[in-house]
Automatic annotation (TrEMBL):
Enzyme class: transferase
Organism: Planktomarina temperata RCA23
The encoding gene: hemA2
One biological process term in Gene Ontology: protoporphyrinogen IX biosynthetic process
Residues of the Aminotransferase class I/classII large domain: 45-389
Pathway terms, separated by semicolons: Porphyrin-containing compound metabolism; protoporphyrin-IX biosynthesis; 5-aminolevulinate from glycine: step 1/1
The enzyme's E.C. designation: 2.3.1.37
InterPro entries per the UniProt record, alphabetical: 4pyrrol_synth_NH2levulA_synth, Aminotrans_II_pyridoxalP_BS, Aminotransferase_I/II_large, AON_synthase_class-II, PyrdxlP-dep_Trfase, PyrdxlP-dep_Trfase_major, PyrdxlP-dep_Trfase_small
Name of the protein described by the UniProt record: 5-aminolevulinate synthase
Keywords carried by this UniProt record: Acyltransferase, Heme biosynthesis, Pyridoxal phosphate, Transferase
Entry cofactors: pyridoxal 5'-phosphate
Chemical reaction(s) catalysed: succinyl-CoA + glycine + H(+) = 5-aminolevulinate + CO2 + CoA
Length: 406
């Protein structure tokens, strides 16, 4: 076999369908994010409108100082897995901080949110005898891969559809172990799961619940504990999973749950055991960020205001966006080529960076721009975004919504 010819042919297919991924090479300006320099043939100043650093915590001075201090105190890396010389006081403290954030007895750190889902779901579903996993149809790739890796039986229920979930649960013997895996805020549509009702079903049918709050931690709830905190449901969810890489602005993932469950994962999850622990400085930064957002409402308030403002401005111009109760503004283009074209022009002519979201991240025909306003976007940034999209909507002859529902 000519291996490289095979790779190239596969990539050419992606290029033809418009699904080939091109990375923007960005240099974020510390203290001035969402502004950055994009490095292509020429350096170009851009405003980022698609970051998951939702609150700008990646440049928060408290976070950065904690990271500097930890580097000065301990150096660069952890130097080992958690088991073999890689556990520091920073790791222990962050796990306590996260357990407290979610009102759980314990928490366990992973090197990313992806890994926490993959390892936790993979280990639970593989090791609980005859476990049936009930997985929401729009679950993130990391959950899907973990569930597949477990080789446990899985059934996929229609997205956020309680009747479908209940129908599947009702078919099973009550005493069969079951794990319902779902997210709170879904990252591509921004809609939110009916957590209370899912917990009701879990109780009725004797199931565990596994909730990915990656797009909610730091952002929702009085202390940034996520949607489950906001709705007073944290105690009803078996496992809450989160990331330190999005609203918390650093990197890493975790689960919060009972002491027994966390110890079980600590002891059996390969993806936890056999990898070098996060660097102390990263952990110190994440701890500072979590602590800050437990106490401060300022970032969450400003975030909600910016999101509402961008939505209102889009509405005024008829730029169609998916309504949802959360903070993610999906603007559906519905065509991979057009989506990429708009994204390219935004960058080239307007200095606005919004990565096109194409298949397989979202279904074909729903290709979109996924816009994430943050407290660090200024009124001028918003003006520029709205004007640019309005121009492009005209130029590309894309449909507008009626200006107001009369
Ligand atoms: C980003 C994401 C993850 C993975 O988290 P990382 O910390 O980026 O690895 C998990 N679940 C969902 C829903 C995500 O969007």
């Amino acid at each position: 076999m000519n291996y490289d010819a095979f790779f190239k042919a596969s990539l050419d297919k992606l290029r033809t369908s418009g699904d080939y991924r091109v990375f923007a090479n960005l240099e974020r300006h510390n203290g001035n994010f969402p502004h950055a320099t994009a490095r292509a043939e020429h350096a170009q100043k851009v405003t980022i409108w698609c970051s998951n650093d939702y609150l700008g915590m990646g440049q928060n001075p408290t976070v950065l100082n904690a990271m500097h201090d930890a580097i000065d105190a301990c150096g660069a890396g952890a130097g080992g897995t958690r088991n073999i010389s890689g556990t520091t006081q920073y790791h222990v403290q962050l796990e306590e901080e996260l357990a407290d954030l979610h009102g759980k007895p314990a928490a366990l750190l992973f090197t990313s949110g992806y890994l926490s889902n993959w390892a936790a779901l993979g280990t639970l579903a593989a090791r609980i005898p005859d476990c049936l996993v009930l997985s929401d149809a729009l679950n993130h790739a990391s959950m899907i891969e973990g569930i597949r890796h477990s080789k446990a039986e899985r059934q996929i229920w229609k997205h956020n559809d309680l009747a479908d979930l209940e129908a599947k649960l009702a078919q099973q013997p009550l005493d069969r172990p079951k794990l319902i895996a779902f997210e709170s805020v879904y990252s591509m549509d921004g809609d939110i799961a009916p957590i209370a009702e899912i917990c009701d079903l879990a109780e009725k049918y004797n199931a565990m619940t596994y909730l990915d709050e990656v797009h909610a931690v730091g952002l929702y709830g009085p202390r940034g504990g996520g949607i489950a905190e906001q709705e007073g449901l944290m105690h009803r969810v078996t496992v809450i999973e989160g990331t330190l890489g999005k609203a918390f602005g650093v990197v890493g993932g975790y689960v919060a749950a009972s002491a027994e469950l966390c110890d079980f994962l600590r002891s059996f999850a390969s993806g936890f055991i056999f990898t070098t622990a996060l660097p102390p400085a990263v952990v110190a930064g994440a701890t500072a960020s979590v602590r800050h957002l437990k106490a401060s409402q300022k970032e969450r308030q400003a975030h909600a205001e910016r999101v509402a403002e961008v939505r209102a401005r889009f509405d005024a111009l008829g730029i169609p966006h998916v309504e949802n109760p959360g903070h993610i503004i999906p603007v559906i283009v519905g065509d991979a080529m057009k989506c990429k074209f708009i994204s390219d022009i935004l960058m080239k002519d307007y200095g606005i960076y919004i990565q096109p979201i194409n298949y397989p991240t979202v279904p074909r025909g729903t290709e979109r721009l996924r816009i994430t306003p943050s407290p660090v976007h200024s009124p001028a940034d918003i003006d520029a975004l709205v004007a640019a999209l309005s121009d492009l909507w005209t130029q590309c002859e894309l449909a507008r919504k009626p200006m107001a529902a009369q």
